[in-house]
Amino acid sequence: MPAAEYLFTMSGFRMATPTVFELSFETEQPLEFLAGQFLSVIVPGAGPGGKDLRRAYSIASPPNTKPIQLCIKIVENGPGTSYLSQLRPGIQFKGVAPYGNFVFKHKPGRHAVFIATGTGVSPFRSISTSKTFQQNLPKSTTLLFGVREETELLYVDELSKLSFLKFIPMVSRPTIAPESQKVWTKGRVTDYLRKLGPEYPWLETDFYLCGNGAMIDEAKSILTANGVQKDSIHQEIYYKPKPGEES
Ligand SMILES: Cc1cc2nc3c(=O)[nH]c(=O)nc-3n(C[C@H](O)[C@H](O)[C@H](O)COP(=O)(O)OP(=O)(O)OC[C@H]3O[C@@H](n4cnc5c(N)ncnc54)[C@H](O)[C@@H]3O)c2cc1C
Q1: Distance CA 202, CA 219 (A)
Q2: For the chain, which terminus, N or C, has the lower number of CB atoms within 10 Å?
Q3: Cα of 73 from ligand 1 centre, angstroms
Q4: CA 11 to ligand 1 centroid distance, Å
């Protein structure tokens, strides 16, 4: 499907967490895409010299469903997120789609592990709720989802209900006592990976990593140390934290 420009009409806006919003929208011409792909939003006049800017967002909803959804972390003074966070139902915006190769490649008899931080859970929500994936499941599917504070968790109810999915939400710096709840585990997704140990079927698993580039680098070094080959590791980096910035 070659990428083309679309006019989107907003149909919903929801604060999914205190710092993440979910946009729902419709298109006049059907937008065909594969679960895991992204679209490039045109941010009018926000670039140098008043030129348009483009910002990439993974599609968080599955193909062939309405509305289409994006899940976006508000970045302070960020032109893309400032523009999108002000849109409300009825307003139109433009984007180019579909883009990207971060799609699930089914390999019979193998396990799949999805690893996300923050809004990096979006492509995995799209993939795991898509018919194509559900009709041809891997041997097992695990989703490790990491955030800093418990209020940042996304789609927990929905993802917990998927019977084929081992969903493991993790919180690295909880503000409440971990013992007081049963939804998440304290720690980072990379801590979880490290603890899997030699008995884990590393070589029979395909790994998909999405979100913060620092997490992806760390996870890849753990995978490589356990013998996982490059062609079993797939990644979508949203951003790289600046040196000294917390990841
Ligand atoms: C393929 C792809 C898919 C993406 N999908 C999503 C998505 O589904 N949801 C989403 O929220 N973002 C996503 N991003 C990031 C998004 O494209 C923008 O970079 C982000 O929204 C910031 O844009 P901005 O113009 O507001 O700020 P900018 O001025 O472009 O960014 C300012 C700084 O914010 C930091 N930053 C960027 N993104 C984040 C983030 N998510 N969390 C914390 N800090 C960040 C970076 O350090 C960046 O240098 C994706 C990026 C790529 C490359």
Answers
A1: 13
A2: N
A3: 7
A4: 23
Residues with CB under 6 A from ligand 1: 38, 55-58, 70-73, 75, 78-81, 100, 118-119, 122, 236, 238-239, 242
Confidence of residue 24 (pLDDT cuts 50, 70, 90): very high
Give 47's pLDDT tier (boundaries 50, 70, 90): confident
pLDDT of residue 247: 54
Fold of 111-239: Rossmann fold (3.40.50)
- For the cut 80, the answer to whether the pLDDT of residue 246 exceeds it is no
Summarize the confidence of residues 107-121 as an average pLDDT: 97
Q: Please state the domain extents for the chain.
A: 4-99, 111-239
What lies within 8 Å, CB to CB, of 16 at 6+ separation is 22, 71, 154, 155
pTM to 2 decimals?
Answer: 0.97
User: 3-state class of 232 per DSSP?
Assistant: helix
CA of 239 relative to ligand 1 center, distance in Å: 6
Query: Atom of ligand 1 at shortest distance to CA of 58?
Result: 8
Predicted local distance difference test score (pLDDT) of residue 25:
98
CB 121 within 8 A of CB 158: no
- Mutate which of 25, 76, 210, 238 for ligand 1? The one with the most ligand atoms within 8 Å of its CB, which is 238
As a whole number of angstroms, the distance between CA 6 and CA 31 comes to 8
